[in-house]
Write a structure and sequence with these properties.
136 residues, two-stranded antiparallel sheet, single chain, 72% helix, Butyryl-CoA Dehydrogenase, subunit A, domain 3, 5 helices, mainly alpha
């Protein structure tokens, strides 16, 4: 759950960072957040982040009540780390070329996020744990 916690924190951080960037950065004389594609991407990521936060919070409640199963913990680790990769990648895309400048927090997040799906058990191991709980 600690790895899942890190993932949801990064998701929320880069999303806030990117929303602010899209308010500040202009292209073709308008804020990049005003373009339909940018709005749609931000809307999708905001929704996915909310779903991720809700699922994570539910897992924490179950953990505190000693009701969290290993399978559900594996779901949280797998899903949130993969979501982190997806959202960080999309946020970097909205930053354009600035996303690759290592001084920008989004570039650092992009570099650091990849390992989340590996340590603490790879995504494939998490799916194996979940699959075994289904009787396979």
């Amino acid at each position: 759950m600690s790895i899942a916690a890190g993932s949801i924190a990064v998701i929320e951080f880069v999303l806030d960072l990117t929303i602010q960037y899209c308010h500040d950065r202009k292209a073709f004389g308008q804020k990049i957040g005003s373009f339909q594609n940018s709005k749609f991407k931000l809307a999708e990521m905001t929704t996915e982040a909310e779903i991720g936060r809700t699922f994570y919070d539910q897992c924490v409640l179950e953990l505190n009540e000693k009701k969290l199963t290993p399978e559900k913990a594996a779901m949280a680790k797998w899903w949130l780390t993969e979501l982190e990769l997806k959202i960080v990648d999309q946020c970097l895309q909205l930053h354009g070329g600035y996303g690759y400048i290592k001084e920008y927090p989004i570039a650092k997040a992009y570099l650091n996020s990849r390992v989340q799906t590996i340590y603490g058990g790879t995504t494939e191991i998490m799916k194996e744990i979940i699959g075994k709980s289904l009787g396979f």
